[in-house]
Amino acid sequence: MSLHAWSDYVRASESAGVTVRNLRPQECVTAAAILTELWGGSPMGAPLLVAMEHAGTYVAGAFRADELIGVCAGFFGPPDARSMHSHVAGVKGGRASKGVGTAMKLHQRAWCLDHGVAEMTWTFDPLVARNAAFNVRRLGASLDEYLVDFYGQMTDGVNTGQGSDRILVRWHLDSLIPRQPREPGDAPLVLSVGADYRPVAMRAPEGADAVAIVVPSDVESLRARDGALAAEWRLALREAMAPRWDEGWRPVAVGRDGRYLMEKR
User: Fold this and answer.
1) What are this entry's molecular-function GO terms (predicted)?
2) What is the pLDDT of residue 158?
3) Is pLDDT of 160 > 70?
4) Contact at 8 Å (CB) between 176 and 140?
5) For residue range 101-142, what is the model confidence (pLDDT) as tens digits?
6) Residue 67, by phi and psi: left (phi above 0), alpha (psi -120 to 50) or beta?
């Protein structure tokens, strides 16, 4: 399976025009600076990246020519689990839309399979529609757990004042990359975007076993211009999604526009 995974990576890296490889210790300073630039704070400093690299866990970067433009780092889970938790990944200069993020993730997958790792987990902000679509549509990963205020109050330039709700993603690394991801369809809405960009909550029809939840298409821009409204969206999504999760509902599809389809299991 790792040969197939490496083939997936090569196609993605050639399409994005990058090479992804494990970082050398002296490159970790630049990697940490990129992460600080992206987050407006330091999610992972150079000493920690160097220590992780030296310990043999995953610390890699995407290079365009000789320039480091993306960073991805993760650590191993419990020995018996054969898992890795991918803690941070980012691409500088707005290049993520050009496939660099995909190339990094597929390199991490192939590397993990070569090292006996069968699954990978990570968290993402469920309000960031493009990340939800990437995880489910592009990679075929599952959304396993809703984590309320997972990191507590964060003080970086991205998350300050927003709460830190996350969804835990689980990716079985020997699964095939989806060619035709499932579409959310037209299930009844329980959360949508109003005319004034405010969240609009609706009651699900009695007996419904599928509902749709829509989030803003670009919450990052919304945070920059109206942090209070973005925080309102955080609570609205939590109220729409977390209780259903506790009752056995799970997201089974995500649209390109930030529409989640949740079904009761």
Assistant:
1) transferase activity
2) 60
3) no
4) yes
5) 999 999 999 999 999 999 999 999 999 999 999 999 999 999
6) beta
Tokens of 131: 């990340």
Residues of the chain with CATH 3.40.630.30: 2-172
Provide the whole-model pTM: 0.92
- Tell me the two tokens of residue 115: 């090292």
In CATH, what class is 2-172?
A: alpha beta
Distance CA 89, CA 35 (A): 8
In contact, 73 and 87? CB cutoff 8 Å: yes
The CA distance from 86 to 219, in Å, is 23
CA 46, CA 7: separation in Å to the nearest integer? Answer: 31
Map the chain to HEC letters: CHHHHHHHHHHHHHHHCCEEEECCHHHHHHHHHHHHHHHCCCCCCHHHHHHHHHHCCEEEEEEECCEEEEEEEEEECCHHHCEEEEEEEEEHHHHHHHCHHHHHHHHHHHHHHHCCCCEEEEEECCCCHHHHHHHHHHCCCEEEEEECCCCCCCCCCCCCCCCCCEEEEEEECCCCCCCCCCCCCCCCEEEEECCCCCEEECCCCCCCCEEEEECCCCHHHHHHHCHHHHHHHHHHHHHHHHHHHHCCEEEEEECCCCEEEEEEC
Query: Alpha-carbon distance 137 to 30, whole Å?
Result: 31
